[in-house]
Known about the structure:
Layout: H1 3-9, H2 18-25, E1 29-33, E2 38-40, E3 48-54, E4 57-62, E5 68-74, E6 79-80, H3 82-87, E7 94-97, E8 101-107, H4 108-117, H5 119-145, H6 148-163, E9 164-166, E10 169-172, H7 178-185, H8 189-201, E11 205-208, E12 211-214, H9 217-224
Antiparallel strand pairs: 1-8, 2-7, 3-6, 3-8, 4-5, 4-7, 9-10, 10-12, 11-12
Helix pairs in contact: 1-2, 4-5, 6-7, 6-9, 7-8
Amino acid sequence: MSAIDVLYRVPLFADLHDEELRELAARLGKRAFAEDMILFHKGSPSQALYLIESGRVRAFVLSDEGQEMTLDIYGPGECFGETALVDGQMRCAGAMTLEPTVTYTLPRDDFLRCLERRPAVARRALTLLADRLNRLTAFAEHLAFLDVPGRMATVLLELAEHHGVDEGHGEIRLRLTQAELASCCAASRVMVNKVLGIFRDEGLIKLEGQAITILDADGLRRRASC
């Protein structure tokens, strides 16, 4: 896949004409990462926007005690790392691959220049930032008001929506360990194992190794609303 093909897939650049896409593609750098590779740490300089050609990347924060919390997971056709580029601050979270991943990077100066020259891209960037804020707000609400089964149900539904085989139903494409699932819902691995077993016994999900298939999405939604 070419750099232009990747730009075509990223909604942020959907309004650019072919010539503009070719100009921007010439600024992109390509890099391949193995599974479980760190792309950047929280507090590192914000030097580029990342665009995913293939694979998946997890955004996370780490406590002083070493406990991880997953903030979001990005897949093919998505971009990330834009927030720190806009405000010029250090990265507010780290990023790590969940599987072999290929990314393109757009340097910060080129990204800002694109925002200045193309209002349509700037508007889409504002929409993207607003969406990120809404997701983080919802995440904070889940942590504050839902118990672990409710948070786990919410996480599974979101994973199915964004990384599922059948748009919210069926098998979740991601193969997450119980530790990684625990970091998504601020729970211990032992508790996640217990809750997954309960959901399986209730007929809400099917478990096959790390593969999770949602059998009853409505049942999970009822769990998430408790």
